[in-house]
Write a structure and sequence with these properties.
The structure is a single chain. This protein is mainly alpha-helical and 149 residues long. The protein has one domain. Helices cover 84% and strands 0% of the residues. The protein contains 8 helices and no strands. Helix 1 runs antiparallel to helix 7 and helix 6 runs parallel beside helix 8. The mean pLDDT is 93.
Length: 149
């Protein structure tokens, strides 16, 4: 059952990633991905995984220790729960990136690969996007200052 839930977690988010990557200009994509409720499916899996292990989870997370965390992650339910949590956060980060990319007018051929990169290696994809965003915002601020004078 745990293995099934582990696999299911990612597949529950694929429709949202698919919309952002393959249908970025469809009006429904912006509407759907603007809701934080898109993270609910993997969080339901998380809840199912940890429901029977709340005391162990609390002990691990309330007093972080490397050995305790390693032991927790060594269990199938613990690793699957963390996976569900990571997948939910990655989706929320990806949806924010998608909205920011639209605000900045970034082309879908740039945002698509950035979102895929974020699915695979979230911290690197997110970091790269933040650098692009900072560059675009700095450029926009410079343009605004010039036009106001």
């Amino acid at each position: 059952m745990t293995g099934f839930l582990f696999q299911l977690t990612f597949w529950l988010t694929v429709p949202f990633w698919g919309l952002m990557i393959f249908a970025p200009k469809w009006s429904g994509t912006a509407r759907i991905t603007s809701s934080p409720l898109i993270a609910v499916p993997p969080l339901v899996v998380y809840t199912v995984l940890v429901a029977a292990h709340l005391p162990e989870l609390w002990a691990t997370m309330s007093s972080p220790d490397l050995d305790t965390l390693r032991e927790f992650l060594g269990t199938s339910w613990g690793a699957s729960a963390i996976w569900a949590q990571v997948i939910a956060w990655d989706l929320l980060i990806g949806a924010w990136m998608f909205r920011e990319g639209r605000r900045l007018g970034l082309h879908p051929l740039l945002m698509g690969p950035l979102l895929v990169f974020t699915i695979i290696l979230s911290p690197f994809g997110f970091g790269l996007f933040l650098a692009i965003r900072a560059f675009c915002d700095a450029r926009d601020r410079a343009t605004t200052v010039v036009t106001r004078q």
